[in-house]
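Re: Re: token formats

Sure, here are both.
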Amino acid sequence: MVIFSTILSGVLIFVLGQIFLKIILEPIQNLKKTISNISHCLIHDYVVFQNSDMTEKIEIKEAKKRLRDLSARLNSDHQQIPFYEKFHKWFKLPIINNIYQASDKLHLLFNMIESKQADKHDYIDLLRKQASDLLDIHLPDKEPMSIIQLKENIRELRG
């Protein structure tokens, strides 16, 4: 009888552990991975966002697709986590309102990339910064150098 109860309790603990893993931990890891991918996109594709007038159409299309997909995935990933309000503090996840707002900012950024507005670059910077703040993503302090700054630095190095 003792052996049977030991085996039964071991199986029960294993099953409960697997349920916790599949229902709680894996969705949390998926959300964290999505936030990480958003961070990568905001940093890696920044040049494409800011120079969309001079960048190849296929590169713009790919960057926009990544941004749109990540915006949608951000919303869907957090909805897979049961009791999100309780777990977000434990796992240092953004609050639900920040997720919704960040998704909206990313969607606005997606729409702004090929805009013809004169001040679109300011909006792109603002939306990028707001989305990163909402998701607690660190962006580099220094943005890429302009061509003029780059040429001046080269001249200085040549002496």
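Second one below.
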Amino acid sequence: MTKKGRKGKKLPHLTRLELQVMGIVWQLGECTSTQVVTEFATIRPLAPTTIRTVLSKLLQKGYLERVPTVERGYKFRATVPRECVARRSLKELLSSLFDDSPRQAIACLLADTDISQGELEEIRQMIESRKQNPNGEEE
């Protein structure tokens, strides 16, 4: 599955900083650049002009669109859901680090991550559900 923007073209990859800014936009929904700058300051200090430059690049790349408002200026809105970006990033990690092997990736997570019993139970239930529906389609 390739990630495409509103106009159907494949979207370029995101940098780590772009992903952080997108995370804030996904969290806030429709938001102004000022709201993104304010929220980003809780993560790490960065100049407001830098955040606005990143927003502009995300707009150019097709990850954001402008939303007209009755207020002064405009708001931003994500054009791509977080899940699509996460799925693409995970597939890239599987390919580059784990030779396209979900088993290797899961083994690494289980060995190196603190996973609660509750989370393990949820994972077990997901595996059982997948066994019953091997095509991964919703019932």
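The radius of gyration is 18 Å. Residues 20 and 44 are 10 Å apart (CA to CA).
- S.
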